[in-house]
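Predict the 3D structure for this chain.
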Amino acid sequence: MTTRSGAHGRQDEPDVPLPTLLTQAKDIAIGRLHERLADEGFEGIRYVHGAVFRFVDAEGSRLTTLAERAGLTKQAIGELVSELEEHGYVERVPDAGDRRAKIIRLTDQGAAAQLAAGRILADIERRWSRHLGGDQVALLRRALEEVIALENG
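Done. Predicted structure below.
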């Protein structure tokens, strides 16, 4: 068995549950993502900010839409938007269709961070492909897509 630190455990220890391994792989990839974003000058972006970056539409999205997509409360997503706004990654602009509402959209800096994140994640996947082989990573991708489809019904 391999532990979180990568050390091999005893043979009589139970296997780590697959969801735990998936979480560990995700945590490692996201950790590397944030390290590289910071190295490239995108300061202040934290893991939880993905709830905005992942779900905001190219033309911008309402706060309520972001909250629904992220599975968070409006208050929680509002706090994340405020943090990202302070760092210059998003802005709130009036909604042309409803003057009471605001649209949250990426600034040029936010769009650049989003593009950088996509590039970095692709780099991570390429690294895995070099180590495991492209066929293995493609098989892993297909298997995970099938699990997601199965569980989303």
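The chain is about 60% helix and 10% strand.
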